[in-house]
Amino acid sequence: MPSFPAEQVELGRRRIEWADAFMPVLARIRAQWAERRPLAGVRISACLHVTTETANLVRTLAAGGAEVRLSASNPLSTQDDVVAALNEVYGIPTFARRGVGQDEYYAHIRQALEHGPNLTMDDGADLVTTLHTHQPSLLAGVRGGTEETTTGVIRLRAMAEEGKLRYPIVAVNDARTKHLFDNRYGTGQSAIDGVLRATNLLLAGSTVVVAGYGWCGRGIAMRARGMGARVIVTEVDPLRALEAVMDGYEVKPMLEAAAEGDLFITATGDTQVITEPHFLRMKDGAILANAGHFDVEVDVRTLRQMAKGPRAVRPSVDEWELPGGKRIRVIGEGRLVNLAAAEGHPAQVMDMSFANQALSVEWLARQAEMPRPGVYPVPEAIDREVARLKLESLHVRIDTLTEEQRRYLSGWEQGT
Fold this sequence. Notes:
Blueprint lengths: L5 H15 L3 H13 L6 E6 L3 H12 L3 E6 L7 H9 L5 E2 L6 H12 L5 E4 L3 H9 L9 E4 L2 H12 L6 E4 L4 H24 L7 E5 L3 H12 L3 E5 L3 H9 L3 E2 L2 H4 L5 E4 L9 H6 L4 E5 L9 H7 L1 E7 L2 E5 L5 E5 L5 H4 L6 H20 L7 E4 L2 H14 L9 H8 L6
Parallel strand pairs: 1-2, 1-4, 2-3, 4-5, 5-6, 6-15, 7-8, 7-10, 8-9, 10-11, 11-14
Antiparallel strand pairs: 12-13, 13-14
């Protein structure tokens, strides 16, 4: 690994420690694992956003005895000071650099795999697909893995359905203590944070179009409306569209919404959500951002073909000029806006997501016999334990059922 400037290493260390102060659940797991060493001898290859919160997750894995190698799961999400501190202060080999091209990005993933992992940890499934397609000789040593995000779970389920997935993977994203909080409150706040840092836009009085009303889209819509914006939701799922209507939002096709929006934020996990017909209908100066994992939701490739540019108008904002002079502005090259233009989710919410990751890895490491290849839910006991620990860290107490209440809920004899 290259050497890093001392001031960069020190900045990374301070920022990692700051995030750690807001991740009490993960810190508690780390302290327990330092004594028990439940991951002793386990090799873990991880492909995650290299942020301060991720640093505290991999520190926890290392405290549990694991040999960890980390690469980035997005070229613009890497925080270089965190890379420096992980390598120099914490001794965790981390292969990442902000703004790398595609070749270097995948080279880093291959470096993270070189030690021959027993377990994998992924955010978007790029490591898993690289392992299956480019380094299949390592598959024999892999017992299981975890996946952090919606897009990755979608890809892995597609692999499983085609019979291509070679080992079991726990869908951490689907844990209730992950998607109900990380996706909704984390993405809701951090996506808006990225937009505001990049643009200094006033949301009050603006029309914000949110593409997708899953948990990420709900969080974004909720935060935009809370800051005074008129919010339009676009959807392809009739149930989610109906939910958005019942939650008080306008719901329209994107082609109609394109003519009305001042700011567009995609959160669908799909491709070409905003493309040429939409660009042509947009207002002069429309701002586009993506909160989905991959940079395919806003069709920047087509925009490049039909418009002049890009012209950098602010840090993280490129302006494109269509024939006739209309301007469209794209934040973070259409990549994940909360990390391309800001710092990602707050540590408090990643505390729960990464506690799920850590405890799911421990669960996998304990299995004498692994499940068949496929995508599996986080065990219910882990989900509940993460919620219990988080409440405890917040000094919140709740009621417990009486024995009579337990009998009532488990029986069927009592009626009206």
